[in-house]
Amino acid sequence: MITTHKIIFQDSSNMRVLSDESIDLVVTSPPYPMIEMWDQIFAGQNEEIGRALKNNDGPTAFELMHQELDKVWDELYRVLKVGGIACINIGDATRTINSRFALYTNHSRIHTYMQNIGFSALPAILWRKQTNAPNKFMGSGMMPPGAYVTLEHEYILILRKGNKKEFKTIDEKKQRRESSFFWEERNVWFSDLWMDLKGTSQNLFDTKTRGRSAAYPFELPYRLIAMFSIKGDTILDPFFGIGTTMYAAMATARNSIGYEIDPNLREQIISKSSGIVDFSNKRIEERLKKHLAFADDRFKKKGKFKHANVHYLFPVMTRQETDLIINELLDVNQMDSDSFKVSYSDNPQEKYVGSRDEYVLSDAEKKDMKKRRTPKKQKKNHAQLQLF
Ligand SMILES: C[S@@+](CC[C@H](N)C(=O)[O-])C[C@H]1O[C@@H](n2cnc3c(N)ncnc32)[C@H](O)[C@@H]1O
């Protein structure tokens, strides 16, 4: 299997080279309106924004900044396939303008706009940020009522274009089954509250680089891509930054396209490409190891499993996980200054191929269990019947 990855150094408010309905999933994080580090970018897109900020007119600046983002949301609606999903990571902003402290609710402004242009909102995720900021307490310290609640979370808005995606051909169905995730992963990933992102596997970029570029943790796009797309799909990030989404797409065997307005980021993006094979394979091994530990623990508590994975032979909780295979990365090649190709193994990692007999019920055992579990024909409960 091979995937391709392309970065386009242009403004994503016009993505004319992308055809209508050509993208399967969007995972992105825009510059946050009313957060000072992005003032300049917004002011460069519309000089009225700079003027509003100079005039201390927060609400006007907020609205104009969002009107710049709206152009990108319009484009996303055009390029997404029917059934395709957009995951938008966004935080609200607090800012004091003219001695007036206020919250600027970026998440609700974007959510409302996207629904107005036709997206359906799906349940969103809140994730807990790493907060080690010294100014954790805002406002009047210990004295009521002038102290403010600290923002320690961000949102991942999840929106779909049209109805659920359909998988019609035999190939599509096979690819979907092979892209499934573990039952125990689903229980964590599909919670609307992610508290564990800071504790998860190390990041590809160091903390300083991530801080300067406002990059999200690798685990965030990694999970979203695994949750909402299948292998071979195309993932778009219209606010590419240092490329965390692209690296997560590489790690999950999806293709990707990114738009970035700042060409100065090129070097940082490319500098990490040679490390992506080892980095991804470590994350994949971590998933497999965790699954084996989960299976072992569950086996000790509940006995044999009903299902075995056909590639790894290890036990899995549900029939949906039986074809799951997480492809190991083999190598990454830079095709030109702004594109890459990644190749993958089609075989399961040998180290994790086990034997099913010890942990999984045989067909005879399953039959026997079924027999013992089938309830005897229910006796008619005359007392109850008389009531009706
Ligand atoms: C919050 S950062 C994204 C960080 C990214 N998620 C990562 O992990 O590296 C937003 C990025 O969008 C870029 N940007 C802002 N407006 C843009 C536009 N209209 N078109 C393309 N890129 C834009 C900024 O230069 C910045 O790098």
Intertermini distance: 63 Å
Q: Helical segment tally?
A: 13
List the ions, cofactors and other small molecules found in this model.
S-adenosylmethionine
How much of the polypeptide forms β-strand, as a percent range? Answer: 15-25%
Give the radius of gyration: 25 Å
What is the topology, as strand order, of the major beta sheet? 10-6-9-3-2-11-12-1-16-15
CATH superfamily name? Vaccinia Virus protein VP39
Summed over residues and divided by their number, the pLDDT gives a mean of: 92
Shape: globular
Uncertain spans, ≥5 residues at pLDDT below 50?
382-388
- Reading the helices and strands in chain order gives EEHHHEEEHEEEEHHEHHEHEHHEEEEHH
Q: CATH first level: which class?
A: Alpha Beta
SSE class: alpha/beta
What does the model show?
By secondary structure, this protein is α/β, with parallel strands linked by helices. The protein has a single domain (2-278), classed as Vaccinia Virus protein VP39 (Rossmann fold, 3-Layer(aba) Sandwich). The chain has 13 helices and 16 strands. The strands form 4 sheets. The chain has a 10-stranded mixed sheet, with helices on both faces. The chain has a two-stranded antiparallel ribbon with strand order 4-5. It is globular, with a radius of gyration of 25 Å. The N and C termini lie far apart (63 Å). Mean pLDDT is 92; it is low at 382-388. The structure holds S-adenosylmethionine. S-adenosylmethionine (SAM) binds at residues 11-13, 29-31, 41, 213-216, 239, 241-244, 259-262.
